[in-house]
Automatic annotation (TrEMBL):
It holds the Pfam family DUF4424. It comes from the Bacteria. Residues 1-41 are annotated as: Disordered. The lineage of its organism: Bacteria, Pseudomonadati, Pseudomonadota, Alphaproteobacteria, Hyphomicrobiales. This is DUF4424 domain-containing protein. Residues 78-377 form the DUF4424 domain.
Amino acid sequence: MKSGYEFSPLPGAARGSRIDRRARPQTGASGRDRAGLEVGGRRRSAGAGRWIVTAARVRAVVLAAVVATAWASGPAAADGSTPELVAGGLVLPANAGVAVKSEDLHISEKAIDIAYEFLNAGDKDVTTLVAFPLPVLSPADSEIFEARDGGDPVDFLGFTVDVDGRRIKPQAEQRASVLGLDVTDRLVADGVALNPYVGARAREALAKLPAAKQGFYAERGLAVWLEGAPTGLAWTVSTTFHWMQTFPAGKAVRIVHHYRPIVGRDLLTEATLDRLAGGRAGVCLDKTGEAALRKALVAGRKAGGGSTALMQRRVGFALGAGAGWGGPIGNFRLTIDKPRADTLVATCFAGAPPKIGPTSLVWEAKDFTPKDDLSILFVDLGEK
C-alpha cells in the first residue's frame, strides 16, 4: 500500500532572497563576539543526498478562503504575507573541550524543542559560557509583532531551558544600535525600552521625553515626532540569553531548551511556485511536488472562476550555528511534526531519506556536522 508520500534525492538549492534574519552572535572584525564565541569562518555548501517529501494528493483552496485563514491564524501584512524570523540552538565556545554526544531536534509550527547530551571526556571539570542568541530585530520586523497582543520585549520567543531536569533562569543581554553605533546606554537612561517592536513601552516612553531630548533621537534617525507623537522607531535590537555551565569530567550533561518559532506566511500562487521550483526561495521542491501544486492551482481556478492560491508557511532553523562546536554530533535526530496528515512538508537536509509517519518526518545521522540552515515549507493540501 502506498503511503501517500514520495521522496527523491535532489541537487543542492541556492540560498534564496527571501527575508529571514537569522539569530547570530554579534561579532567584531576578529570573528568572535565579546565573550569569545567562535562564529566566523563557516562554509555554506549545498551538500549531497538532499531529500524532499511531498504529498501525492493535492486539493486547491480559493483565494478568498486562504486570505481569511491568513488573518485568522496570525499577524500578516495587507497582502497576507509576513517573513519568518530564524533562530537556532545553543552556542558554545569552540575551544570549550565539550563534545555533543547527541542532539534531538523537534520542529513544528508551534514549537522548537532541542535536547542535547554534552560530554566532557577530559579529566578535569570544564566551566564555560553557553549562549542562545535570538533573531536580531530591525524596523522591517515591526509588522510581525503589530498584531500580537502585548508580549515580552526581551523574551519574545518564550525561551526556557532545563539542565539535567532542573529549570534554570539564564541571564539576558539586550543591546540597541543604529548604523552600527551602540545607543543602549542612552535609551536606558531615558527609560526607553530597548525593543521598540514588541509592545508599546518604547513608544510611550518617547512620548514623555521633553523637546530638548527629542533632538538626539531625530538627528540619529532613531525616531521622528509628528504632531507631538513619536513614530518611525528605527533601531536594531540584539538579544542573547546566556549562563555559565559546568561540565563535570567524564560525565554527560543533558540540556533541553524550548522556544516558539516566528512563522512566515505567504500566498502560494503560480508565480511564487516558479520561484520555489527554480530553487530561488531557499527550499527544495522536486518535479513531483511542483506538478502536484500546479495541478491544484489550476483545479482551484476552474472551480472558483478566478484567482486561486494556497497558503504556504515557513519555519527556519539556524542549524549551521552548531558547526562551531568542537567536533561532529555523535547521534543527530531531526523530527518535523505536521499539523495535519495532509500537510505537505518540503525541506533540504543532507542525509539518508526520512522515516515517514502519518504526521511526522524523521531523519537520523551519526557523526553529523551541521552545515546548511533549514528552511521548512508547510502547505495544507485539503480544506478543513
